[in-house]
Amino acid sequence: MSSIVILAIESSCDETAAAVLKDGKLLSNVIANQQVHVQYGGVVPELASRAHQQHIVPVVATALERAGTRIDQINAIAFTRGPGLLGSLLVGVSFAKGLALARKIPLIEVHHMQAHVLAHFIEDPKPPFPFLCLTVSGGHTQIVYVEDYLKMRIIGQTQDDAVGEAFDKAAKMLGLPYPGGPLIDKYAQEGNPYRFAFPEVAIPGLNYSFSGIKTAFLYFLQEQQQQNPNFIAENLADLCASIQYTLVDILLKKLRKAARQMKISHIAIAGGVAANSQLRKQLSQLGEQEGWQVYIPKFEYCTDNAAMIAITAYYKYLAGEFSSPQVTPLARMEF
Questions:
Q1: Is pLDDT above 70 for 41?
Q2: Host domain of residue 217
């Protein structure tokens, strides 16, 4: 049997990424970040799509070069179909379709959030089936029951805001620049996570809600600043540590409930927020308490990347799941 070589493209938000995978082994993984959004305090969709157009050709060329692979050695082109920013997705989808047409090779569409889950299969250790994956990012917060590579379902998710958005909005309230989530993590290292307590919103079942805690945090800061205008500056580390502890605690309480309910002891995390040091630490501690085998991906496989698109496409290739040349991007895409 000849080798399966896949070129994968990820362009769902503000990272332009390409990766090359051969027979399930990652050969290269290249990411171009977009700094243009920092001055606006968030991702500007129009600017993101323009930056993707500038980056995609050099990023793909670099990925092929680092992999030591020629374009005529590629067997299939994989791409993120959705969910994501429509303009950003359109750049990646259009590039993949054009290249596949020119090379007369198949297309493989990938669901962005399923790819985050399958990032665990890029390198060892790999979780056995079935397992639970807490998938947390700026746009999603989900507990996913994973039965097989291409068979998974959401058993719990946020009913309003994603936890990544809660981190970024809390950071903005504290006067921290975008992206604020990693900065909260940084300052929290020197703070007391038990200094301030914030109320949780009780949601039945395995679902989440983060809009209430954002509001509570805002009102708390406003009240304290009325008494002391320098309150945030004087208590920044403790505020970061406390809000971070609260958000992570909410995540893990529902995850523990899901694991007990489903009687599963193999637990994974994925997505951009999976890079948070407090989440990694508390999950490891909870895993020891509950007797779980915990799977935490490398940092480079947590944030948006093309390696996770490539590994997902590899399993879809083996299953014969290819896309039509008429495929279009989807800003919202069913799991």
A1: no
A2: 125-297
